[in-house]
Amino acid sequence: MAKLRMKFIKEEQAAWISHLDLMRTFQRCFLRAGLTVKHSQGFHPHPLMSILLPLSVGQSSVCELLDFETVEDVDTEALIRSMNEGMPVGIRVLECYDVTRPVRELKVLHARVEFEYDGGVPADAQEKLRELFSRESIIIQKRTKRKAMADVDIRPMLEEVLFAEEEDKLILTVRVQAQDPGLNPALLATAVEKELPELKPDFVRVRRLALLDGAGAEFR
Amino acid sequence: MDKRLERILPRVQKPARYTGGEYNAVMKNRDEVEVRYAFCFPDTYEIGMSNLGMRILYGIMNEMEGVWCERVFAPWGDMEEEMRKSGMPLYALESGDPIRDFDMVGFSVGYEMAFPAMLNMLDLAGIPLRTEERTALSPIVYAGGSAMYNCEPIAEFIDFASIGEGEDSTVEVIELYRRAKREGWDKPRFLREVAQIPGIYVPSLYDVSYNDDGTVAAITAKDGAPAKVTKRIVQDMNKAYYPAKTIVPTTEIVQDRVSLELFRGCIRGCRFCQAGYIYRPVRNRDPELCAEYARQACADSGYQEMTLSSLSSSDYPGLLPLCDELEPFCEGRHINMNLPSLRADNFSMGLMQRLAKGRKTGLTFAPEAGTQRLRDVINKNVTEEALMQSCATAFAGGYNAVKLYFMLGLPTETDEDVLGIAEVANHVVHCWRENAANHNRGLRVTVSTSWFVPKPHTAFQWEAQIPKEEYERRVELLRGAMKAKAVTYNWHAPDTSFMEAVLSRGDRRLGKVLYRAWELGSKLDAWEDYFSLERWMQAFADCGIDPHFYANRERSRDEVLPWSVIDCGVREDYLWNERQRAYEETTTPDCRSACGACGASRLIGRKCDG
User: Please, what is the end-to-end C-alpha distance for chain A in angstroms?
Assistant: First the structure.
């Protein structure tokens, strides 16, 4: 019996798999690999597994983490190999190890946000965005769990924004608060749309790069 | 990923159904492929991926060297709109390539109401809709599936139809196409040659003439096409391909489970049932082989649910031994087994104990008619006694919900038969009171009625559908009689059933109506969300065609039926005789008790497994 953590990539087509479907996919993939995930007790037992910080549909990531419990001890190297034989395109398991750190120690999300401008990046975009993200507060409207709209200040959750340009893209490399509450990096575009409508990108692409602890080291 | 697609996906519902990349999807190298095949299903991903026939043929085609079969489904309305807006043509899920560049476009059509979706998919692909507008050898557009037993309404759109089970004929058609491509044949030559493959019907090689009263006068074959096209079948189910290793969708589909096919055909001979006639003769797969396939399919997919599927699964001779053999395997992997088509007369304690152990929710039975007299007319050889026995077993075993399916508008139906449905429901309630293991949980009985649609190749193919007003009167009559609190009554909205009745027995003249309806906006008409009878009535008016001629007219014995070139194995005089017996209220024994010599066994050259 073991409590294990699995690190995996979710990209390309797999970026469009919803959280619920991803859980199902892993569940089936475990069975394909011949592994029995421990189930909860009760009338409708469900497998004990959870994905840390579920990713928004359409975003990609090279650092997703899945916790699960098994009935027997597991040869993790063999498990990774057989999992990767049975995955849909775009999901690849990288590592599997015993859980040693609690989820609450995960503090920071490191991500790459691409703003695409079909007509080329506006000349003053970088400067204006830099100014926007260094304001004392940035209020945006966000849908709450109760489906109502609420004002949220995203500034306190924003630790760092670095800029780079590439063809028709403005690339933001960001560090944001990961949880309690976490900031979805896509909301940076929402802030731009609200505060600088003329700089609203034609398309936004988000990719998670790393999960970090409070000291800036990789959270494992 | 295509850039246009990446931009569209955030704006549509359930984007995962448009991306492909699922486990077991077949990828091939374009440069090593000689025939690109777009396997189209004229409905959504969730419906199409639930179709076992499609999985079988996908597997068979992709086992062919140099052939790459890819899947194509109809986009939902939001996706279609986005695709049209961004100029993105219909593409195949595996490669993402536009299907207008493919060699062959094959549709699997199981339902007449999917015809408009077919036209819409061709249009979205940028492929001309009518066969005469497609002059080159590629793409060849054809269709198979059970709706092709009368493909006349889409005759002007398809190059040919594949009749019956496609396991063998699909391979033969593709090989012929490969030869045509290598040797540079033109399309007319290919069509003449493909018509020589048994089971292939090329509508353009048949001239249809009409009488003054609008009925078909004659159908004449030309250019060497056969006078009769006999359906193809798999001879031996023990040698038939089973897709044990098959695509596992990453998003939820309708039948999200292993589907294990036990046998083909049905021994029962219900006179209204097209499937019961067209899938004859009965051919069983050995239980040992079924068990082996079940284990392979569950192990490879990781599914924890399995359906034992066939037209009437509880008639499978090896059912209990099969369940017993699979039990330890299923138990160990938490796999639930279920049976979709239970008969009210052979649901036993033994079978109940083997099904879905943890979750005892509901059972579904289809008595189809409310009185014994009418059940004898339709040859649904189920007695009320047997139904009550089955319900008693179920209630005693802890079930507390029963669904009952009936039809209204069956031939010879009287008000007494209609009211009989309410009586059956009351008897079920009474049965529950006397037998329920636990009365505290209460009982739910759901009664559903549909409007009978006469189908081609059945004993009732000559019947008129009753008028809509009469159907609605009978619904009201039954509603008034449904008194018990535990009983919920649902009835089908009549509009779709009326259009089904028109299209299923239509002739070629409906092609222009179909085209007009599509122009007016028909697409996913199998869905209530998109169906509109007004639009169809507009199309009929625009084309000067009376739909009641097709739906509500009784045909005479000597009328040339538009689908009479198609031979489903069952002789027409057998069907007529069955109709006579219906009016005499005489039942016909099931095929296992006594062979009725319907004619279908000549297709396998031996007695069938009935």
Answer: 20
B9 vs A12: CB contact, 8 Å cut-off?
no
Q: Are residues A149 and A66 in the same domain?
A: no
b/e per residue, A21-43, with b = 16+ CB within 10 A?
bbbbbbbbbbbbbebebbeeeee
CATH number at residue A83: 3.30.70.580
Among A40, A70, A100, the domain-final residue is A100
Q: Measured between alpha carbons, how far apart are the two ends of chain B, in Å?
A: 51
Residue B358 has pLDDT above 70, yes or no: no
> Cβ(A192)–Cβ(A132) under 8 Å?
yes
Domain count, chain A: 2
B300 contacts A13? CB cut-off 8 A: no
Residues A86 and A138 in one domain: no
Domain CATH for A209: 3.30.70
Residues from chain A contacting residue B299 (CB–CB below 8 Å): 31-32
Q: What Rg, from alpha-carbon coordinates, does chain B have? A: 24
Confirm or reject contact between A28 and chain B (CB < 8 A): yes
Q: Say yes or no for a CB contact (<8 Å) between A14 and B21.
A: yes
The answer to the question of residue A220 being in a domain is no
Q: What is the pLDDT of residues B275-323, one digit of tens each?
A: 999 999 999 999 999 999 999 999 999 999 999 989 988 899 999 899 9
Cβ atoms of A6 and A95 closer than 8 Å: yes
pLDDT tens-place values along chain A, 220 residues long: 789 999 999 999 999 999 999 999 999 999 999 898 998 888 777 889 999 999 999 999 999 999 999 988 899 999 999 999 999 999 999 999 999 999 999 999 999 999 999 999 999 999 999 999 999 999 998 887 777 888 999 999 999 999 999 989 999 999 999 999 999 999 999 999 999 999 999 999 999 999 999 999 999 9
- Contacting B residues, span 97-156, partner chain A, CB-CB under 8 Å: none
Using CB atoms, pick whichever of B19, B25, B301 lies closest to residue A28.
B301
pLDDT in tens, B199-247: 999 999 999 999 999 999 999 999 999 999 999 999 999 999 999 999 9
Domain limits at A95?
A: 2-100
Q: How far is A40 from chain B (nearest CA, A)?
A: 13
Nearest-CA distance A32 → chain B (Å): 5
**A30 touching B (Cβ < 8 Å):** yes
Residue B11 contacts A where some CB pair is shorter than 8 Å: no
Same domain, A203 and A118: yes
Q: Which of A27, A31, A85 to mutate to test the interface with B (most CBs of B within 10 A)?
A: A31
- Yes or no: say if B377 and B412 are a contact pair by the CB < 8 Å rule: yes
| Of B59, B56, B40, the residue nearest B48 (C-alpha) | B40
Check B21 against A32: CB less than 8 A apart. no
The torsion defined by the Cα of B559, B560, B566 and B570, in degrees rounded to 10, comes to 30
- Which residues of chain A neighbour B15 with C-beta distances below 8 Å? 16, 57-58
Q: Say if residue A133 is in the same domain as residue A157.
A: yes
Distance of CA B143 to the CA centre of its chain: 14
Say which of B1, B10, B302 has its CB closest to residue A31: B302
Any domain includes A35: yes
Residue where a domain terminates, one of A70, A100, A130: A100
Residues A119 and A175 in one domain: yes
Q: What confidence score (pLDDT) does residue A146 get?
A: 74
- Do A128 and A173 have their domain in common? yes
- pTM for the whole structure: 0.95
Q: Are residues A59 and A20 in the same domain?
A: yes
Q: What domains can you pick out in chain B, each with its CATH number?
A: 3-230 (3.40.50.280), 258-564+572-583 (3.80.30.20)
Give me the amino acid identity at B226. P
Contact A3, A98 (CB under 8 A): yes
Report CB contact under 8 Å: A13, B303: no
Same domain membership, residue A64 and residue A147: no
